[in-house]
Amino acid sequence: MKWYQKPWSAVLFLFLFFPVGLFLMWRYQPWKMGLKIAVTAVIGVIFIAVIVPGDPVPPGSPAAVMSLETGADFSTTSTAPAPTFSMPPMPTATTTSPSALATTLATVATMKSIAAATTTTTRQARFVVYWGHTGDKVHISPNCRTITNGVLSGTLDECKAEGHTDGWCGVCSGGWSDERFYREGNPYAD
Ligand SMILES: [Zn+2]
């Protein structure tokens, strides 16, 4: 295999000088048709974003970052089976500019990561129970008057492991059960 037939040279030229890279990819690389079309479409979007007058793409903008990330992705996929992924609809000049599309994609990714982090925090806080240094009960409320010498908190499993195996407190936890706790979480947890 000549050097220009190897996957890395196609990826390198896609990165440095895309017309050569596109040629090498289409001519020599056995990648899936969907991947080749996706690569060509992404480079086309970036190229249009760079040359469109009045719509410059400064270094570090989402479109420029996207091209860097794209190059990295293809170098890792060149030896493995090509992944199948769907491209977003191609923007038209009259509705959405390419750089606006890149900005939208970056914004969506950021919002997804924030939402995932928020969900994790909420879930951990909700499934907390309380117990005292003495007594065998599980308490739903950290302010239960039967906890007199300092309140401890943790998961229900941790509470039971500490020896609090006599069920839910009759003062603060009337009507509560393990099943209801796992279903609803703790409304007193913050
Ligand atoms: Zn209690």
What labels describe this entry?
52% helix, two-stranded antiparallel sheet, mainly alpha, binds zinc ion, 2 domains, 190 residues, 2 strands
Explain the overall architecture:
This protein folds into 2 domains: 3-123, no CATH class; 127-184. It has 7 helices and 2 strands. It has helices at residues 7-16, 18-28, 33-51, 62-77, 98-126, 156-161, 178-184; strands at 129-132, 151-154. It has a two-stranded antiparallel sheet. α1 (7-16) packs antiparallel against α4. Mean pLDDT is 79; it is low at 74-78. Zinc ion binds at residues 139, 144, 146, 169, 171-173.
The helical percent reads 40-55%
Q: Which compounds are bound in this model?
A: zinc ion
Q: Given the helix and strand composition, which structural class is it?
A: mainly alpha
- Which oligomeric form is depicted? single chain
Short description:
This protein has helices at residues 7-16, 18-28, 33-51, 62-77, 98-126, 156-161, 178-184, and strands spanning 129-132, 151-154. It is mainly alpha-helical and 190 residues long.
SSE blueprint:
Blueprint: H1 7-16, H2 18-28, H3 33-51, H4 62-77, H5 98-126, E1 129-132, E2 151-154, H6 156-161, H7 178-184
Helix pairs in contact: 1-2, 1-4, 2-3, 3-4
The structure holds zinc ion (ZN).
